[in-house]
Design brief:
The protein is mainly beta. The chain is built from 3 helices and 26 strands. The strands form 3 sheets. An 11-stranded parallel beta sheet has the order 1-2-5-8-11-14-17-20-23-25-26. Strands 3-6-9-12-15-18-21-24 form an 8-stranded parallel beta sheet, with no helix packed on it.
């Protein structure tokens, strides 16, 4: 019998690369730490200088790390790598950082996050960030609070407010983002989501984005590019349950483009914040060349069908190539 393999499959196998040992100069985190290594991610972060200007890195071996990680502002660029046999995807990730803080426990959203990233020029590769709190309160997997941050092959799991893209220019590429309520949200960040799998949980109603742009001068802009939206594995989600977004503030700005939308997306596309508080007078909600059953239907009157796609430079700036790992872009 002759076997046939599509060319793209052969290319994928050829191009897949692993990262199974620490890059030179990295601090090492391991569940079975030996001399010179660290048992928790936070202890490795704490060992780094915040005043050095030389690039820094941390490598994490396989395992589940039950902790909250805080990365304070620093002068150096920092990269954290998770052990993986395939850096090109999140599906083979073997490192998970998890905890369950919510606003039932602490004073604000940022303090609930599994990873509190407050440092500019930060990259994270092939790590799963999980907040297990579930329904009932804001509980973040990520609080991204600084400029020029990139997340590559990362999984983000939560229910309400999973990813806080809050400040500066940010990139999310080849990632998985899971949630139900306002689970991509923030106030001033410009964020580009590229080849991201957005997965929604069983709920009576859900909202993917809640952008909090509050004025014409606020730079915040979320663009979901060449991605896809569908029900999370093991979740039964009725057709039309989810909306692409609702406005946390009334200058909210979000675009979905060239993205596959399954039937979990409501034909209206977008939703007001609340029946007595719509917040739609200055929103910019657009779509371009989306496909799938969720791209059909009569969209909300305050949404736009765009004549052309938004360019990555519009969101991240003309100098984005200096800090973005372009090998992950579509």
């Amino acid at each position: 019998m002759r076997l046939y393999f599509p060319l793209f499959s052969l290319l994928s196998v050829a191009l897949a690369a692993g990262r199974t040992s620490p890059p030179s100069g990295c601090l090492v985190v391991s569940k079975t730490a030996s001399s010179g290594q660290y048992k928790t991610v936070q202890s490795a972060v704490n060992a780094l200088s915040t005043t050095s200007t030389s690039p820094q890195c941390i490598f994490i071996y396989q395992g589940t790390y039950n902790e909250q990680v805080y990365i304070p502002s620093r002068k150096a660029a920092l990269t954290i790598y998770g052990y993986t046999t395939d850096t090109s995807t999140y599906t083979g990730n073997t490192v998970t950082i998890t905890q369950k803080l919510s606003q039932d426990d602490v004073a604000n959203n940022d303090l609930t996050a599994t990873l509190r990233a407050h440092s500019a020029n930060f990259k994270l590769y092939n790590v799963n960030l999980v907040n297990t709190r579930g329904q009932g309160s804001q509980a973040l997997a990520l609080s991204a609070q600084a400029d020029k941050q990139g997340y590559y092959g990362v999984q983000f799991h939560g229910y309400q407010d999973t990813v806080l893209a809050n400040t500066g220019a940010q990139l999310y590429a080849k990632c998985l983002i899971v949630g139900a309520t306002d689970f991509i949200f923030g106030q001033t960040a410009t964020a580009w989501f590229d080849r991201v799998d957005i997965r929604v949980l069983a709920a009576s109603i859900g909202y993917i984005t809640a952008n909090g742009r509050d004025s014409e001068s606020n730079p915040s802009f979320y663009v979901i590019n060449n991605s896809n939206v569908a029900a999370a594995s093991g979740n039964s989600v009725k057709a039309g349950t989810y909306y692409l977004g609702r406005p946390w503030r009334n200058y909210s700005r979000v675009v979905f483009q060239r993205t596959s939308l399954s039937n979990v997306v409501n034909g209206e596309g977008w939703k007001v914040w609340g029946s007595s508080d719509p917040r739609t007078d200055h929103v910019y909600y657009g779509e371009y060349a989306n496909t799938g059953d969720g791209a059909k239907g009569t969209r909300a009157a305050f949404a736009k069908k765009l004549a052309s796609p938004v360019a990555i430079e519009t969101v991240l700036g003309s100098g984005y190539q200096s800090w973005v790992d372009r090998s992950y872009l579509s």
